[in-house]
Amino acid sequence: MAHKAGFVNIIGNPNVGKSTLMNAFVGEKLSIITSKAQTTRHRILGIVNGDDFQVILSDTPGIIKPAYELQTSMMDFVKSAFEDADVLLYMVEIGEKALKDEAFFKKIQNSKIPVLLLLNKIDTSDQETLETQMEHWQSLLPNAEIHPISALENFSVKEVFNRILELLPEAPPYYPKDQLTDKPERFFVNETIREKILLHYKKEIPYSVEVETEEFLEDDDIIRIRSVIMVERDTQKGIIIGHKGSALKRVGVEARKDLEKFFDKQVHIELYVKVNKNWRSNSQQLRRFGYNG
Ligand SMILES: Nc1nc2c(ncn2[C@@H]2O[C@H](COP(=O)(O)OP(=O)(O)OP(=O)(O)O)[C@@H](O)[C@H]2O)c(=O)[nH]1
Ligand SMILES: [Mg+2]
């Protein structure tokens, strides 16, 4: 059989379950997941390899109207996902009406490539709501193929994957067949730490944080990691650290446990907190953290 390969890019509003779906396809926790919007800030590749196929999935940030430069860069990642897609996975969740950004929605409506509309979180819905929602989306996007799924419960994920394989063009693999992602190890360290911050801190704190791993030393039996948690203001630094360092300690312990699973090795983490004033609006800093800036 001929070899098939291509880019399958997942886009949609914040918090609809894009990262959950990518992880379900890949079978690894490549993307962090939380119940907060704007969890994903990058375009992250997850590659699923088979003897006669290579599906290159892209998880992307949820679509928003940018208010500061970091968010502009996040939306540039979404734009790039429109440009190279062979198949577009437009994810919505039950109850949602339309994409908040008109321009992006028009792009989906006018898409020349196949669009699969994934109606996610159907585990939270009844049959009647589901049918109404399917009609609603079919009328908005007559060219899209609608698939009701639950990324969390792994419902219909396999069926969608098989449909993707049918739609992919014949092509040789773009990446080595043992490659799982385009991101380096340090990226997953940064993201795991950021996930714990999203989970345990409130209000603007998670959105003011970036993580940078300064040291990643791998021995035969242990990985030694030193990472810096960057905040925008002095007051945020105190909040991150917490009473006698207890809050920061919790972040470290939980991140270590996840990373030990991810790397299948013992992990030691040292965490520091630094103030990096207004990094979210500083092009130079953003580039340093892997955004376009
Ligand atoms: N009930 C239910 N919850 C889901 C499902 N898929 C994802 N979730 C939950 O929805 C929340 C958001 O999931 P994510 O995968 O982080 O969503 P996302 O679209 O990547 O979010 P951003 O990166 O912020 O744009 C998490 O709490 C998930 O557990 C689903 O099929 N059913
Ligand atoms: Mg995400």
From TrEMBL:
Residues 12-19 are annotated as: G1. GTP binds at residues 12-19, 59-63, 120-123. Its main location: cytoplasm. The keyword Acetylation does not apply. Residues 149-151 are annotated as: G5. It is a peripheral membrane protein. Residues 201-277 form the KH type-2 domain. Residues 59-62 are annotated as: G3. It comes from the Bacteria. Residues 4-170 form the Era-type G domain. Residues 120-123 are annotated as: G4. Residues 38-42 are annotated as: G2. InterPro entries: G_ERA_dom (IPR030388), GTP-bd (IPR006073), GTPase_Era-like (IPR005662), KH_dom-like_a/b (IPR015946), KH_dom_type_2 (IPR004044), KH_sf_prok-type (IPR009019), P-loop_NTPase (IPR027417), Small_GTP-bd (IPR005225). Monomer. An essential GTPase that binds both GDP and GTP, with rapid nucleotide exchange. Plays a role in 16S rRNA processing and 30S ribosomal subunit biogenesis and possibly also in cell cycle regulation and energy metabolism. HAMAP family: GTPase_Era (MF_00367). This is GTPase Era.
